[in-house]
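Our collaborator T.R. sent over the components below with a one-line note: 'Predict the complex.' Nothing else. No constraints on interfaces, no templates requested, no preferences about which chain binds where. So this is a plain run: every listed entity goes in together, and whatever single assembly comes back becomes the starting point for the next discussion.
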Amino acid sequence: MSMNRRDFTVGTLMGLAAMSGLTVAVRAEGDKTIAVLFDGLYSEFWVAGIKIIRADLEKRGFKIMEAISDKDDNKQFEQVKAAIAQKVEGIIIVQTDSNAVIPAIKAANAANVPMVHFNRPPAQSEAFSVAIQADNQKIARDAVLYSCEVAKASGKKHQAAILIGNLGDPNAIQRRDGFDEAVGQYKDVIDVVARIPTEWDADKAFAGLTNALQANPDISFLFTSSDFLIPQIQQALEAADKWAPIGDDKHVIFTGFDGFPAAYGLMKDKFMDACGVQNLFYETTLAIQAILDLKAGQKVEKLLLDPGFAITQANMEEKKGEMWGYVLWKEANPG
Amino acid sequence: MVPDAGRQARRGGFAGRLVRSEYFVLLLCALYALAAYPFVPVLFSAEVAGNMIADMSPLLIVAVGQTFVLVIAGIDLSITAVIALSAVVGASIMTQAGGYLPGNGGVLPAILAMLGVGGAVGLLNGLSVTRLNMPPFLVTLATRMFFAGLAIWYTTFHTTSSSIADLPPLFTGLYDFVVLTLPIGESVLTLPLLPVLIAVIVVIGAHVTLSRTMLGRWIYAVGANRRTARVSGIPVESTIILAFTICGVCAALTGILMSSRLQTGSPILGENVLLDVIGAVVIGGTSLFGGKGKIVWTLSGVLFLVLLDTTLKLLGASLFLIFIIKGAVILAAATLDTLRNRIFVEH
Amino acid sequence: MSEARPLLSVSGLAKSFFGVRVLHGVDFDVFPGEALGLVGENGSGKSTCVNIIGGVLKPDAGEMSLNGAPYHPLSPKGAASAGIAFIHQELNLFGNLSIEENLFIERLPKHRMLPLIDRRAVRARAVQLLREVELDLPPTTPVARLSQGERQLIEIAKAISMNAKVVIFDEPTTSLTRHEVDRLFTIIARLKARGIGMIYISHALDDVMAVCERITVLRDGAVLGGGPRDEFSLARIISLMVGRAIDTIYPERMVPPRADPVLRVEGLAQPGVAKDITFDIKEGEVVGLGGLMGSGRSELARMIFGLDAFSRGRIIVGDKVLANPTPREAIDAGMAFLTEDRRGEGLLMDFSIAENTILAALGRFARAAGMLEWRKVVTESKTMAGRVHLSTDRVVETRAKHLSGGNQQKIVIGKWLMRMPKLFILDEPTRGIDVGAKQEVYRIINALVEAGSAVLLISSEIEELMGLSDRILTIYRGELTGSFARAAFDREILMGAVTRPPRAEAG
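Returned assembly:
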């Protein structure tokens, strides 16, 4: 009976592993593995991120140990411990909470396993890890500056609205600061009338924007701190009869952030004026290179910045190749 | 009416005895570990064993609490909210970044407050179930949503970030207060002893309570047949309230261990452990219909779930696959529970 | 009468379950227009016999013939179409359907031309059938609204409509009021007049004697005696059933009641349930409470025990006044209560004998910190099992649900004896248990009372009340209608007191 059950269990495990598209022997002796621990795949940004990291690691001949914590920091800590036990070369991590990840960093330090935070830096602590982060403020500022120029060129005064992310998230704060910095230089043209907190929640964003458009029907300049809110924005603007392409009187000057495929689509169709793009390809290269450098005993800065870039109606054709959203859009719309 | 022969318990031979055995799930654990070994040889290393024991402790404590509630024919969905709320309340008291009693001096009051939060939510659940005569599923679904929301709201008053950090060293050191380090072969077993000790105490205490005390008899009787219990003079309402309170306190204890481990009071701490907790208890063999359950079973169930989790984690299985497999195992356990009563025992 | 050809003849019927023989060659005949009383203790094989006849079970050996032709039913449906109707203890009706729909559920009359149910034909036939079973209700009444007795009549009407030749009754009177029983007997007589044969199974031996022309006694799967009713006396049937002679069913008590009251009930009232009830019970006294179903007899007991609320009045046990008792307080004051719902309120069916036995007396086994002395639990449970003559002493291994009804009842009694109650309220203690177990229950009651306890006995069997009580109180619609001392016990008068409002009685 024990043989039968064992056979059954082995068979089941193999079947399930095959189903999931895994190679069964993830960790053959002598192969080098890198753990990729995300907290979730909540938007296209993260799906694209893990895909690009996976492709890059495979190209370089690494095995991958992937795990998703589903926003459970305790579980992610356990995943880090498991990765350490698997003797991985390094860990690329996206934590949920910037404080709660610190014990995991300490555990990695103790085991001498390099840890790199992808796109989301941890809180300050004495533990050592490398964070890759987009230069949110600069990217946001550059994108918004282009839109400000557009506004100025229109010769009219504009009322502006910003969709702000979760204030617990440094990325969100930096993007807001970049926006403020840019519009601050165009006080004569742009008056910010609505600051809408979204807490990274699409429903709240929709409700907030709808309310703002009712209170200020003349809003004609909009910045979103993330492209994942695009569907809600389009819906709210359509309801307010303000969804119109560039050139139309009703057009709202629209600036995005992240560089989603949807953002590229809107740029192409001339609904969006500019978009701050995080350079996922570059961030991936930085992350992997940091692990290799740390493994080789070289010194690496605690924070590595992705300068990113602003894609605008003006530079779209020349820059779109670097925009991850364009690459995915192209995959989905071949020809 | 089936005549006398039908009254005698039917023996199902060796397989029957095995399936009915207390240790069936433990045996499954062993078989599973053996079967998984070729794919994840590191499973048998001291380091992974240590990790598993450490991972088990918080889950085990909250599952023990849940066992009490399931045995009285209830269910407590609010445990995740208790973990989160106790974490942020405790952290808000002792955090060195503007806590009410910052520093090491605040640790004991904070811990007491955390246990108090668990007890209070449990008490509220129990009172709602008995006094308002509401089904436990509904009551605890409501308290889960309410207190999970409260935890997030409460946090916003104490920090600008999404969690409360900078906890005093006495608290953050609690989890790793004494660490057993034991080199076995090439691998090193590292085991934080304090959480394991707490889990062991909770398990033994709960086991003795359920199997050897008067309260234990009350709990089983209330779960098996509330009317018979009432006629027999058992304080049915107090027993139910007590079971929910025990469950709440256990969840708070898990909240203490988790927040000490992560050195953070996070309002989404433990948000996703519900499936694991109820799953572990059910895999162990405790009935969702009440009156049937043992702490030893819960221990086996938690072990099995952690083993499953660890192997899938080491294999690098995707989250979705882990969910599918866990769901299937829990379903199988529930089915097995029905089957082993129907086929191998008696009518 | 005996010269007639048997309608149903059974010979050499044998059956085993899991290698255990439960029937060892049973023979009996059912004649047209007669009822055969099939009696025996629980587990004697009665149910197995009729389940074979009804096509539920297949015999291992034996022959059956119906109307002279070999009869081998393959299924209950086959038995029904051959003319065997089975009126089960648990009736198989659909509560959500109307009487007429239930009557014709298996073969609703179709319209001649259309593929529809012919409502008018259904209605006419249903009215006719209801008249035959003396049920004066519109055929459209939902069955859920009917009493247990009325539902049974529907089952009988169904049997008539299917032209049954043999009707099997399995414990037909257990949940009927006396009035309903009388009506049932009238209808049985009518069935006999139509030449229908019957098999009548019951623990109520008086009923069997009253209804049946022939009697067959089973014990341990074999026929111990059979023949015309006139050849049997109640005493002989019982001694055949239990395998020993029994002089009287109700044992004599040696000690008379004492003067001190154990329980005083003063002015107990609850709208719609109880009206100003006052009485007392003395040490060593058995007080019977007689009343129809729904008269408030069980409700009164539940109020005294603190299970149901009351609006006025008080209860005094010994020197303790219980104004608003809970079961726990009632128990602490020295009460015990065997409710009429043995499975639902008396036992934890999935639990062992020992776990059930200690349930009301946990404090006795607790040491410091509420720890139970398990060894003491086991020894005392075993002692109690012996005291109530339980069929097994494997008190830890055996679960309550594996025991017969009589043994289950003994566990409930044992549970309360553990507390040495001053007042034991017994609500239908012998319902659905066989005569042997009944006797044991009576013996236990007597021993308890002789030791000075008091008993409040509720029973729908007047004979049982008369046989055991020192005094009988009668209750009608929540009001006490009479109190009768033992010397004044009279079946007719008691029957009158439980079926008439108090004013009529007083006048």
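Summary for T.R.: The first strand of chain B starts at residue 179 and ends at 184.
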